[in-house]
Amino acid sequence: MSAHDPLFWLVIITAIIAISFIVIAGAMIAIATFVNRAVKSVNRLEEKLGPLMARATALSEQGQAIAVQGRQIAEQFNVVSGHLSKATMHLSESAALIKEEVRGLTILADETAEMAREKVQLVSRAIDTTHDRVAMTTEFIQTKVIEPARELAAILAGVRRGLEVLVAPAPSPINRSYGDEEMFIG
């Protein structure tokens, strides 16, 4: 195959298109890997926050139970009611702090989940944009490169054929007596 052959240029253009598709496929695989990692990170975060939230809820319930027991003890022991009321107050404050921490953790978990959703949507939009650009590039190459290349190949084939006709040696003169014999033989 030589550089003057139109088929050679079609093979080169096809190779360039194939390499472009391979690069685009590699980019899409990289994006898919990134999305997969982001999803795994979100799942790990949810798994870690689940037991922590359960523990915080259990601590809150235990604090409330202790406060109730403290009140019962205060009613039974009037003598030490001052000391027990202080202890109950401290336990209530601890329960409030625990509730506040649980709220903070809940808000943090909600913000993290929302951020992860936004990132997944961002990656999804990036994949959609990449897909649209690949389709537009394919259509552009089809209309602007491949179709004109086919037309150019047809024109070059016609020009080559015309040159072959022009450059071909002149036909040898026919012997007239030989031509007459041909007519009577058949």
Q: Short summary of the structure?
A:
The chain is mainly alpha-helical.
Task: Please outline the helices and strands.
Layout: H1 6-76, H2 81-167, H3 176-185
Helix pairs in contact: 1-2
* Structure annotation, total helices: 3
Main sheet overview: none
What is the rounded distance between the termini?
A: 46 Å
- Overall morphology: rod-shaped
**Mean pLDDT metric:** 85
Helix-strand category: mainly alpha
How many separate structural domains?
Answer: 1
Rg for CA atoms: 43 Å
Element-by-element helix/strand order? HHH
Segments where pLDDT lies below 50 for 5+ residues?
none
Approximately what portion of the residues adopt beta-strand conformation?
under 5%
Work out the helicity level: over 70%
Tell how many strands the DSSP assignment holds: 0
Structure description:
There is one protein chain. The protein has one domain. The two termini are 46 Å apart. The model has no long low-confidence stretch (mean pLDDT 85). It is rod-shaped and about 150 Å long. Helix 1 packs antiparallel against helix 2. The longest helix is centred in the middle third of the chain and has 87 residues. By secondary structure, the protein is mainly alpha-helical. The protein is built from 3 helices and no strands.
Keywords, please?
mainly alpha; 186 residues
